[in-house]
Each structure stands twice: as C-alpha cells, then as structure tokens.
Amino acid sequence: MGDKLRRLRVAGNVTQLELSLRLGISQRHVSFIERDRARPSQALLTKWLAELDAPASVTNAMLLLAGYTALHYNPQVMKSPSLRGMRGAIEAHSPMPAHIFCPEWHVMEINHGGRWLCGELMPNYINRMGEAAAHLDMIDCLTADDGLLSQVLDPICPALAFLNQLRMEEWVTPALRPRIDRFEESLWKRFNISTQPRTSEAVDTHLVLRFNSRFGPLSFFTIQTVPGLPQDVTTSSPRAELWFADDRKTREIIYANCPPTPGEQVQAG
C-alpha cells in the first residue's frame, strides 16, 4: 500500500514535506507510511487521499486494501458517471420496465416502460399517489391492497420473497423496520399466511412475477444490479431493477401496447 500512496503523491507533484504540512504530521511519518513501516489510521488515510485529490474509486480501493470500510455516499446527491449511466441504461431498456431505487426503497428514476406498466397494473394506486408516483415508496406499493401484488398470480411466493429480502436489508438499514412490519402485517391479513413457517434461506433478488392484465397474463423475470467498480459498492449504493419478458407472448404485448416516448415517435413525411 505504501508504494501506491507514494506514486499517487508523486503523480500529483506533491513533496513529502508539503503533504506532511497539509496532514499535520511529520515528514518522517509520511516516509514511514510510504515504506510500509507504519500503518495509517482510517481518518489519516482518508484525509491523505483527499489532499491528493484521489478519485472516489481510488480512495475506496485504498481503504479496502488497508482493511477499512469504503466511504459511503448519499445516492440522492451524488452526481456520478455511474448514476448517469444507470439513467441511460434504464431508458434504453424501455419498453421493458426498469427503475432505480435507493436503500430506503424509494424509486429514484423510472423508465417509460415502467411508468406504463404501473398505470396498467395498479391504476388506482398510481392515481391516488398523484405527483408522488414519480418517486414511489416501493414498500408501500407492496403493502397497499391495490398496489403491485393486487394483480400478481399466486402472490404468496413472490410476497414472501420480497419480505425475506426486506428483512435481510433491515439489518443494515434499520429505518426500514416500521414499513416492513406494516408490509408483513398486510400479508397476514390479505393472504392468511400468519401460520405458515418461513425457514431461513438465501435471498435471491431474481424473481419471476406473473400478472393479470387487460391484455391477458404477463410474465416477467427481474434482476437487481449495482453499477460501478467493486470498491464503490456499499449499502448506500443505488440499485437498478430490470424487468425482462419471461415469454414471447409478454414481449409481444409490451411492444404492441406500450406507446413510444415522444422522442421515439416518427412523424409521417
């Protein structure tokens, strides 16, 4: 690690003396760290890298290399290339549904196909949300009687899969608990599953969801993904959830009925 820190300093045209003055430590201590004869604390290492204007990915990589946790960033305010790339990716995924959501399970961005499908599967819920529908509370959407689960065929299995994932995420995001409790209570009332044992099992963020719709059955499989370099992925990272047609009939229905976005419309000559 010391040699990597030295090379970062040299690349930034910063002398050991200058860096030591910025950090408030002796030049000898800087030299010891760069020769791996001393180990910096997490606070010192973070400040060291900040003084050298190291990119976030480099900072996280160095922190992990030193045995510390990576920095956490607020996804609501972080304007990173990864987030811009996520927005482009979910729009390119349209007309298949896709959205970006934060660790608190609120939708940050939703693509055209996702907005259309929400309007088809849970119109009353979307209308009731009004402008708030642009940033749906995903847990409330699962909890509401007229929300996402209202049109799911055989809803118990996916409902319990959602609950299992949410309970696991509650460990690192405790603020989720009241909303998860309400969701679990709604499952007891709606599907009479209070006496069904739920054994511990691995969480799989890949789901198959089948819905009733005015076009007939729709079948999707979903997958959640986190973009960016491995060292930048933390519990506060935003995620994208992509939906794919699970059969040809669903694909045909989506492409035939989801209207194009204004930018996709072709004017007659």
Automatic annotation (TrEMBL):
**Domain HTH cro/C1-type, residue spans:** 5-58
The signal sequence is none
Q: Which Gene3D superfamilies does the record cross-reference, listed alphabetically?
A: lambda repressor-like DNA-binding domains
Q: Name one GO molecular function term.
A: DNA binding
What is the protein name stated in its UniProt record?
Transcriptional regulator with XRE-family HTH domain
Organism of this sequence: Phyllobacterium myrsinacearum
